[in-house]
Amino acid sequence: MTGATQQQTSLTAALQHPRFRRLLAALAVSQAGDWLYNLALLAVVFERTHSATWVAITTAARVAPILVGGPLGGVLADRFDRRRLMVVCDAARAVCMLALAAVAAFGLPVVLAPALAALATAAGSPYPSCVAATTPRLVPDAALAGANAARVAVGALCLVAGPGFGAVLLLLGSPTAAFLANAATFVLSALLVLSLPAGALFAPERTGEPATGFVGEITDAVSALRAQPQAVRLVGADVLCSAVYGAQTVLLLLLARHIGIGDAGYGYLLAAVGVGGVVGTLLTGRLASAGRPRLLLVGACVSVGVPAMLMGLTVSLPLLLVCAALTGTGSIVVEVATDTALQRSLAPEVLARAYGLTFPAAVLGIVGGSLVASPLVMLLGLGGALVAVGALVAGYAALLARDAIRSGRTAAAAGSTEGAEGAEAVPVPAAA
Question: What pTM value is reported for the model?
Answer without folding.
Answer: 0.75
